[in-house]
Specification:
single chain, about 150 residues, mainly alpha
Length: about 150
């Protein structure tokens, strides 16, 4: 994520980012094998909050809300899960300052885990079934970790 943030944001890069944020969740609702990227966008939200970058925070929140609307998930659940992660767990992960891969990987694991825990507790409380836990979610977690490590 640091490589993308350090470069200046050109209009083409901004346009591609906006198109990704607006169109990718719609593609996920059509093609179910595309990864959700909840962990990667959650880490982007945490990074934007930590480094005080409002544009990054806005992009991550719009993606999360668009994803929840397109997949009929509980509204603001991703944002609430990421904010809970930022308050309770992320300060302890800052101790991995020297390891450039450890902090993003652990952040993605915890964000995805907290989101699934919140989603399952929501399903239990309201007796609904929002998501089915299967191999597609594991695939999505692995792709999230790869995105954070590569970028």
């Amino acid at each position: 994520m640091n490589i993308l943030i350090k470069k200046s944001i050109t209009p083409l890069l901004l346009l591609l980012g906006v198109l990704f944020v607006l169109l990718y969740p719609m593609l996920i609702s059509i093609y179910v094998f595309l990864p959700l990227c909840i962990g990667a966008m959650g880490y982007l939200l945490v990074y934007g909050i930590d480094k005080n970058k409002p544009l990054i925070v806005l992009i991550a929140i719009v993606y999360a809300l668009n994803l929840e609307i397109n997949l009929s998930l509980p509204l603001f659940m991703i944002v609430i899960s990421v904010l809970l992660f930022t308050i309770f767990i992320y300060p302890y992960l800052k101790h991995f300052g020297r390891c450039k891969i450890c902090q993003p990987l652990l952040s993605v694991l915890f964000i995805d885990g907290m989101y699934l825990a919140c989603l399952f507790s929501y399903d239990f409380i309201f007796q609904t079934q929002s998501i089915v836990l299967d191999k597609i979610l594991l695939y999505s977690l692995i792709v999230d970790m790869l995105i954070v490590v590569i970028v």
